[in-house]
Amino acid sequence: MVSVLFVIAVLAAIFVGFNIGGSSTGVAWGPAVGAQIVNKTAAAALMTGFVFLGGWTVGRNVIETLGGQLVPRSAFSIEASIVVLGFIGLGMLFANLYGVPVSTSMTAVGAIAGLGMATQQLNWAVIGSIMVWWLIAPVLGFWAGAFIGRYLYPHLDRRVAIQQSAGPLLVLDRSGGVPRPALGPGTTQRELLSTVVVLVIACYMAFSAGASNIANAVAPLVGGGLLNASEGIILGTVAIGLGAFTIARRTMESVGNDLTDLPLLAATVVMVVGATITTVASWLGIPISLALATVMTIVGLGWGRATRPSTVSELVRGESDTSVTVDTLTAEAGDEVPKIGEEAPEDVKPVQTLFDPSTVARFVAFWIIGPSVATGLSYLTFRFFLL
Fold first, then answer.
1. Is the pLDDT of residue 34 over 80?
2. Which residue of 31, 268, 279, 373 shows the fewest CB atoms closer than 10 Å?
3. DSSP state for residue 40 in the 8-state scheme
4. Which residues span the membrane (predicted)?
5. Least reliable range by pLDDT among 263-267, 289-293, 311-315, 341-345
């Protein structure tokens, strides 16, 4: 017979996964939806499928870290699992209501760390390695974006710029005996290929989100022996899918249209870098924030593009005046890309900001406050009420 506590624990995991779907789907599919390459329903369906694939493969390593290495499996009683999942879900719900792609992984680590400190079973070596990666990821994102923006982006913009024509991408050609797909009016082979690339990269982002985030919803249940890893992954996928089809519509709109006016090429670069950092960390068993790496890559990409008029020696001496802006990333490269230090400053100077500083400040504040509050509340609850 299924116990009431088991049902509550499963519902708590579904609640967490539901909110993960709301947050992560916006990060993964916001640019593609904002560019009208795919609609929100199709984005949610693709998100669900690739989240499952990421969780079933790489995500098992993260489940093992959160469900058995950060604290011993014996710490995850059914009551403890419910409380930990409750803190994770409430923290995410609060952030989703404010339209912020919250760091689910950081919140989950904080809630589990609070349990470990209260029971004096926290593995400090594991938490230390996780926090080191939390520092490394945004630095990697920034400098990867900066390198691409400074040395590669103008060449990419000239050769593979993603441009969209009016009207449908594909149509059915009924001139023959059997209807077959054909390019729409004004659609070029280059546009079709670029669109396919954007869709593939969004699927890659969804894969990395599943690899990192499914564990946040089900690791306590798997660690406590209430579910095995495969059952947990299936449960987490269903819950994330529910969030993707419902509350993610708001976050897709927010990320695709409100956070930044990134050109589609720049958004594609950012997605590749952010997803790669997250996937590598997940393969190593490190729960990490996809949003954290993504936002810092945006900043680095704009900064790198803005520094092209300056040589390295001028940057070292502080003689360069650079600003990170949309115009920096939309500056026309022309027929020839100028060499570093020879590009005219007025060609990349900004008049419009790349991102709203207050929005980024709110994101960073949630990344700091969310895990801190989750850790504190979890510790106090287990220390004074449940032990």
1. no
2. 373
3. H
4. 44-63, 75-98, 124-149, 192-214, 226-247, 259-277, 283-303, 364-386
5. 341-345
pLDDT in tens, 120-158: 999 999 999 999 998 899 899 999 998 998 888 887 877
How many CA atoms lie within 13 Å of 41's alpha carbon, on the beta-carbon side?
Answer: 0
- Pull the structure tokens for residue 208: 């990395």
Phi-psi region of 36 (alpha: psi -120 to 50; beta: other; left: phi over 0): left
170 forms beta bridges with 183
In angstroms, the CA 279 to CA 30 distance is 19
* Closest C-alpha among 30, 101, 130, 77 to residue 291: 101
Give the pLDDT band (50/70/90) at residue 118. Answer: very high
How long a stretch of residues is the chain?
387
Confidence label for 254 from pLDDT (cuts 50, 70 and 90): low
Task: For residue 40, count other CB atoms closer than 10 A to its CB.
Answer: 18
Cα distances (angstroms) measured from residue 121 to each of 9, 76, 125, 276, 366:
22, 11, 12, 32, 27
Question: Is pTM, for the whole model, over 0.70?
Answer: yes
Helix 264-283 to helix 4-34 angle, to the nearest 10 degrees? Answer: 150
**Residues 278, 59: contact at Cβ < 8 Å?**
no
Q: Name the residue among 267, 321, 320, 322 with its Cα closest to residue 298.
A: 267
Give the pLDDT confidence score for residue 239 in this predicted structure.
Answer: 95
For tokens 């490269």, the residue is: 333
Q: Give the separation between CA 264 and CA 375, rounded to whole angstroms.
A: 38
Query: What residues have CB less than 8 Å from 348, skipping those under 6 apart?
Result: 305, 306, 308, 309, 327, 328, 331
**Pair of tokens at residue 302:** 């704009």
Range of the domain at 225: 4-384
- Which pLDDT tens digit goes with each residue over 305-331? 878 776 666 566 665 555 544 444 555
Tell me if 129 sits within 8 A of 286, measured CB to CB: yes
Q: How many domains does the chain have?
A: 1
